[in-house]
Amino acid sequence: MNCPTIKKKGVSRMQTIRFYPFVSTGKEKDEETGYGYFGARYMDHELMTMWLSVDPMADKYPSISPYAYCAWNPVKLVDPDGRDWVVVFDHKNKTVTIEAKYVVKKGDEDAKKSAENAVSVWNSLSGEYGLKVGKDNYIVNFDLSVIDDSEVDASNSDRNLNTYRLKSSFSNPNVRGETNRNSIYVLASDKDDFVVSSHEVGHSLGLIHPIGGQKGLMEEDGGMKSGHHEITTDNVRNIIDLALHPNNRDPNWHSGVGGYREKGTSSVDILKPLNINLYKRNKK
User: Fold this and answer.
1) What angle do CA 215, 219, 223 make, to 5 degrees?
2) CATH number 3.40.50.1100 given to 85-280
3) Which end of the chain has less neighbouring CB within 10 Å, N or C?
4) In sequence order, what are the beta bridge partners of 147?
5) Boundaries of CATH 3.40.390.10 in the chain?
6) Bridge partners of 99?
7) How far is the C-alpha of 212 from the C-alpha of 281, rounded, in Å?
8) Could you tell me whether strands 183-187 and 161-167 are parallel, antiparallel, or unpaired per DSSP bridges?
9) Is residue 228 classed exposed, middle or buried when 0-12, 13-18 and 19+ CB atoms within 10 A define those classes?
10) Do residues 190 and 165 lie in contact, with contact meaning Cβ atoms separated by under 8 Å?
């Protein structure tokens, strides 16, 4: 891991007599800099518990400083990665889990049912794929869930959240669904259409319309013309890749921004593409 060497004026981290590896947030310090390392950014725990770079999701919270950790309320809130969705590598149990939550308005049963139908399409893929991590085989799972806005509180403050709404119409009459980063809108008349809703969930997981004639659910029309509505191996591979390398995301698209975190340790660096390989499992 290449870490920046950043020093406060008059203070040298190299002179620290004793090194404590974990900080108040439970994250491990980078031994070279002494800062907390969160995967995407570094934090200075001595200077007001603030980030050392801008929050990649800052445009979602314009009233809060992009350098603020947990909106300056770390006692109540937790922010493991600041993303819309996350891929969790569990090195002990050998699993890779794609996690996200979709928030509907309390009492909007139509939106809730539509969102549940959409995430069920993705969750049904759990166990279908494996990921070779070094010499170890991991099982890939999807854990996408639907909650209502009354459940969004400190316990859901990881911000792996996406809103899901039904809309009576769009300005373009040919549009049936629309995703803007972590906000999904589906045409109300198509609320029961699994293809439309699951296609938009795919966008929230960072996917864009395929280039080069690839067929499947993420075609612009969801595969209506081609007759292919399946989620492809490339789709799953891209979700994991975009979680590990969010800078690979095309900024011209309004798809979701992902991140990753690890439970336990691995003998290989998962950020090196040659160390991981997705494959379709032969389930007995």
Assistant:
1) 70
2) no
3) C
4) 103
5) 85-280
6) 86, 143
7) 26
8) parallel
9) middle
10) no
Residues 6+ apart with CB under 8 A from 70: 76, 77, 78, 79, 157
Least confident interval from 148-152, 222-226, 233-237: 148-152
Among 15-19, 77-81, 153-157, 179-183, which stretch is predicted with the lowest mean pLDDT? 15-19
Strand partners, 98: 87, 142
User: What pLDDT, on a 0 to 100 scale, did the predictor assign at position 10?
Assistant: 37
Distance CA 126, CA 85 (A): 16
Tokens standing for residue 206:
């960072």
Closest CA to 190 of 207, 176, 171: 176
Average pLDDT over the chain reads 78
The pTM of the full predicted model, rounded to 2 decimals, is: 0.72
- Residue 195 phi, psi dihedral angles, 5° rounding: -65, -50
Within 13 Å, how many C-alpha atoms sit on residue 272's CB side?
Answer: 10
DSSP 158-222: T--EEEEEEES--SSTT--EEEETTEEEEEGGGTT-HHHHHHHHHHHTT----SSS--STTSTTT
